[in-house]
Design goal:
332 residues, alpha+beta, Aminopeptidase, OB fold (Dihydrolipoamide Acetyltransferase, E2P), 13-stranded mixed beta sheet, 4-stranded antiparallel beta sheet, binds zinc ion
C-alpha cells in the first residue's frame, strides 16, 4: 500500500512530511505523516489531531503510542496525521491567520480554495481511500478545563452500521462520559455550524469516526495524554489490530443532550465545581466577583454533569462558564 504516495510494506514504519502549501516567506507548509503497517493483515485506523492548531494533548499520545507499537504484533495499519493545521499551530491558535477559517468546517475541502480548504482536501482525499476507521482528537479551547470525553454522532446519510460502529469505538476508548449526538435533533446545541466537520464527513463516506476531546487547549495535561494513549490502544484491541483483553469500564455515561452555561455578569469568576462532577438542580456552579462584592451567582437549573468549566477567571457577560450534559443514561 501507499500513504500519500509513500510506499509502506508489511513490517515497515513511515515518517515523512507532506507538502500542503507555501508561505509568503518562501517556506513550505508541511504536515507530518506517520504510519506503521503490521506484518499481518487487518484494518487501517487513521488518527487525526490539531485540526484546531492549539489542541495538543492528542498529538503527544499518538506519538507515544506509535513508537511503543510492535510491528510483529500489529494486525493492519495505523496512520497518524497528528498536526493537520500547522499554520494555526505556529500561531498557538485554533484557526490560522492566513484565512481565519475553522479547518474543521472545511472537509472534504477544496484544492482551489483558501489555506484551510486546501489542507482539508489534501488530507481527506487520501484518508477516504485508505482509512477504515478514524479517531479525530480535539480539546476544549485554552480558556477551559475539561474531563476527557468522546463525541460520536448519528449522521443522516451514513448507514446504520457506520453509526453503530462509531459509537462502539467511542465506548471502547474507555472514558466515563460519552456524548451521543443525533445530528437530526441536535441543531442549536453548539454554537456555529458543524457541517464540514471531519468526523461528520468521514461518517457520510461510511468511515466510522468519533471525536476524542481531551482536556483544554494550549497546554499538555499528562493525565489526559495517558488517557488518550490507553484509549487508542483499547480501540485497536476492539478492532482486532492488537491482541489483549479490552478493559471494559464498570460504568459509562451516555450524554444525549448538552448545553453551555453563560455568565450574565462581568468580572472575575470562581468556579464552585470541577469538570467530571455531577451537580444537582439548585447547586452553586460559579460566583462572579468584583473587588468588593459578589456580583452574581450561577446555580444549576437542572441536574447536570460538568463536562468542562471555565479555566481563565476573566469573564464578560455572555461568556461561557461551563459546558454541561443535561440528559444522560448509564451504559454497562
Ligand atoms: Zn477542536
Amino acid at each position: 500500500m501507499t500513504i500519500f504516495d509513500y510506499p509502506l510494506e508489511p513490517g515497515q514504519r513511515l515518517c515523512e512530511y507532506v507538502k500542503v502549501g507555501e508561505l509568503a516567506c518562501f517556506s513550505d507548509i508541511r504536515i507530518p505523516v506517520l504510519a506503521i503497517r503490521g506484518k499481518q493483515d487487518g484494518p487501517t485506523l487513521w488518527l487525526t489531531g490539531a485540526v484546531h492548531g492549539d489542541e495538543l494533548n492528542g498529538l503527544w499520545a499518538m506519538r507515544r503510542l506509535f513508537w511503543d507499537l510492535d510491528v510483529e504484533k500489529l494486525q493492519g495499519t495505523l496512520v497518524l496525521t497528528p498536526l493537520l493545521n500547522p499554520v494555526a499551530f505556529l500561531g498557538r491558535a485554533k484557526v490560522s491567520m492566513l484565512d481565519s477559517l475553522d479547518m474543521d468546517q472545511q472537509f472534504p475541502g477544496n484544492p482551489a480554495g483558501l489555506y484551510s480548504e486546501r489542507v482539508a482536501h489534501a488530507v481527506f482525499s487520501e484518508l477516504k481511500q485508505k482509512a477504515n476507521y478514524v479517531i479525530d482528537f480535539h480539546t476544549l479551547n485554552h480558556l477551559f478545563s475539561a474531563t476527557p470525553y468522546t463525541v460520536s454522532k448519528i449522521v443522516p446519510g451514513a448507514d446504520d452500521q457506520t453509526n453503530q460502529q462509531a459509537f462502539r469505538m467511542a465506548k471502547a476508548f474507555g472514558v466515563f462520559p460519552n456524548c451521543r449526538v443525533d445530528l437530526q435533533s441536535a441543531s442549536g446545541e453548539l454554537p456555529g455550524t458543524t457541517s464540514g466537520a471531519l468526523d461528520i464527513v468521514c461518517m457520510q463516506h461510511n468511515i466510522p469516526c468519533f471525536m476524542a476531546e481531551l482536556g483544554g487547549g494550549g497546554r499538555w495535561e499528562e493525565a489526559f495524554i495517558q488517557v488518550a494513549y490507553m484509549g487508542i490502544r483499547d480501540v485497536m484491541i476492539d478492532l482486532g489490530m492488537l491482541a489483549g483483553n479490552l478493559p471494559v469500564p464498570e460504568k459509562q455515561l451516555i450524554i444525549t443532550k448538552r448545553k453551555f452555561l453563560r455568565s450574565n455578569a462581568g468580572g472575575l469568576v470562581r468556579m464552585a465545581v470541577e469538570p467530571g462532577s455531577f451537580v444537582p438542580a439548585g447547586g452553586l456552579i460559579a460566583t462572579i466577583y468584583d473587588f468588593w462584592q459578589e456580583v452574581d451567582h450561577l446555580y444549576a437549573d437542572q441536574d447536570m454533569f460538568m463536562i468542562a468549566t471555565c479555566f481563565n477567571p476573566v469573564v464578560s457577560s455572555g461568556d461561557r462558564l461551563a459546558f454541561v450534559g443535561c440528559e444522560w443514561h448509564e451504559d454497562k
